[in-house]
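Tokens in:
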């Protein structure tokens, strides 16, 4: 399992640790909406084939930015216990990344397709 201090990446997801202290939201940050876990996990990075990047819901609160830049997804998370970002793929998967208690920002990258002239989320 990989560890990091300030910034890490797993596929198209960039993880930035923004606070090391244990914190909780008294309310949803302005401009964010609370996410609901699916089957006990938060889906941080979606995959059309089901090979999502996920984090256990236990000990985590996650909110999604309502109006991110085109093609981008930005999440904020508060963790009250150690967790890991895992890649649900039986082969060629990204190594899990250890996340210690604290506050994190997850950004799902974007790319520009000059032929279709569109901005879209990166996928892995």
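Residues out:
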């Amino acid at each position: 399992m990989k560890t990091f201090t300030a910034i890490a990446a797993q596929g198209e997801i960039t993880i930035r640790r923004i606070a090391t202290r244990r914190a909780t939201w008294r309310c949803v940050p302005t401009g964010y909406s609370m996410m609901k876990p699916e089957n006990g996990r938060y889906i941080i990075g979606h995959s059309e084939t089901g090979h999502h990047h996920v984090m256990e819901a236990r000990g985590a609160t996650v909110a999604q930015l309502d109006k991110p830049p085109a093609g981008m997804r930005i999440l904020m998370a508060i963790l009250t216990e150690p967790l890991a970002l895992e890649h649900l793929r039986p082969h060629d998967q990204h190594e899990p990344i250890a996340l210690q208690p604290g506050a994190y920002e997850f950004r799902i990258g974007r790319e520009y397709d000059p032929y279709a002239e569109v901005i879209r989320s990166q996928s892995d």
